[in-house]
Amino acid sequence: MSPALLSVDTTKGKYLMATRVLIGGQWGDEGKGKIVDVLTEQATWIARFQGGNNAGHTVKVGDQKFVLHLIPSGILREGKTCILGNGCVIDPSGFLKELDEVRAGGINTEGRLWISDRAQLALPYHRALDGARETRDCGKTVKIGTTRRGIGPAYADKMTRMGLRAGDMLEDDFEERLRHNIEEHNRTLVFQGHDPLGMEATVAEVLGAAERMIPMITDTTLLLNQAVLKGEEVLFEGAQGTMLDIDHGSYPFVTSSNTTSGGAATGTGVPPNRIRDVIGVVKAYTTRVGEGPFPTELFDDDGMNMAKVGDEFGATTGRPRRCGWFDAVVARYAVMVNGVNWWALTKLDVLDAFKTIKICVAYDMDGQRIEYLPAHIRRFAACRPVYEEMPGWNTPTTHIRTWEALPEACRNYIRRIEELTCAPAGFVSVGPKRDETILTPNAPADLKG
Ligand code: GDP
Ligand code: IMO
Ligand code: MG
Prior knowledge:
- By secondary structure, this protein is an alpha/beta fold.
- It folds into three domains: 17-117 and 216-277, 3-Layer(aba) Sandwich (Adenylosuccinate Synthetase, Chain A, domain 1), CATH 3.40.440; 120-213, Adenylosuccinate Synthetase, subunit A, domain 2 (Orthogonal Bundle), CATH 1.10.300; 283-447, Adenylosuccinate Synthetase, subunit A, domain 3 (Adenylosuccinate Synthetase, Chain A, domain 3, Alpha-Beta Complex).
- Helix content is 29%, strand content 20%.
- It contains twelve helices and 20 strands.
- It has a ten-stranded mixed sheet, sandwiched between helices. Strands 14, 16, 17 and 18 form a four-stranded mixed sheet that branches.
- A hairpin with a 2-residue loop joins strand 3 and strand 4 (64-68).
- Helix 3 packs across helix 4, helix 3 (124-135) runs parallel beside helix 5 and helix 5 (174-191) crosses helix 6.
- The radius of gyration is 22 Å and the shape is globular.
- The structure holds guanosine-5'-diphosphate, 6-O-phosphoryl inosine monophosphate and magnesium ion.
- 6-O-phosphoryl inosine monophosphate binds at residues 24, 27-29, 54-57, 144-147, 149, 151-152, 239-241, 244, 255-256, 289-290, 315.
């Protein structure tokens, strides 16, 4: 690499760091897509750094609704450039279907979307293996309730170093290696009692997709680092949430990537000391899709109301989301492992009609009060929420655009969340649309005024 490509002198004070990571602070679906869309107004580059099309980010632009799975939500704003970083797993057919949908929605993506040549491919055999694992009735195999997009098996191949990367699509031996991997994984499928994938149909599907993807594949590590050193604004768009992180989440009921802010560095090749700040997105309550412990989960009318008013159905699989009160232990943990500078607190309007609102401030674990998150899933499953109760505001908030105009009880609720989690709320979201967002007095300075 020519040194001239990275020639900005960062020691001379000319260098302005304008990079921001956005991550989910709960179990995903916090409203990251909407907040990314709001923040994209300021950014030049938007980069996904992990996950695949297991994500479902819903963005409402006027009367149009877009559901993005792999493509960064930044694609919806003209003139912004989007990156799928090396930490992502890319399903070629899923990616192209999504691209066609975005284009059909009137978005010009030409020259605005780049795929890292180091990104892993999630291929048809990964999907088949994911489905097979989820339906396996075999003693100790835990059902995760995955999205069945092949995410786990694709990351497994990355780690065992047999994975195919986007950059391999440009090489002469791609078909040969693809055939080899199909054979390998077919053996596992047959061993587990499933049908093997048809060799020719699978090869044709992947090679057909490769032809369309190749013009978008490039060295995005270089692109992003050059942009960062020029002081251009880069927004790293996280998928899933902290509690789904492969290391820090509620293992084994997690996804297979690092969803926390550190993943932005490893998943794009932009070093950690080039990342300026971190925004954590949390709902004003909690939801979860799939299996696994969820201390504040509700099975009563309150939970049903959250699901109904919040329209809590998975954007990728359509599964109903489990709902519960805000868990400050989880959010505090998210502040710790992500270094959250500000919260974007979403879906506050969903609580508009609740007479009283509960916040989980600690857990009761086998009779002992704890204020941290236990690492072991059995201990976490034993945690019962210790609640604090606050009065609701019982009035609509969706039309409100300023911090001062929010009802006092609502501001008190937000202040309490800030206290309990040790991070300020910079943004409050009171509806799914772009303008249904309030910048608080604590919002990042570069966004105020
Ligand atoms: P993501 O995966 O974190 O991007 O979140 P999802 O898009 O899966 O789920 C969030 C859902 O809530 C989407 O349908 C959004 O349109 C919607 N949404 C986002 N913010 C708000 C809000 O403040 N109020 C309401 N009522 N809906 C919101
Ligand atoms: P966004 O980006 C919520 C969950 C699945 C399952 C677990 C593992 O929209 O917030 P996987 O298919 O990744 O192997 O599934 O993770 N999960 C999500 N839950 N939002 C998501 O993404 C999710 N992506 C995966 O339900 O419990
Ligand atoms: Mg989602």
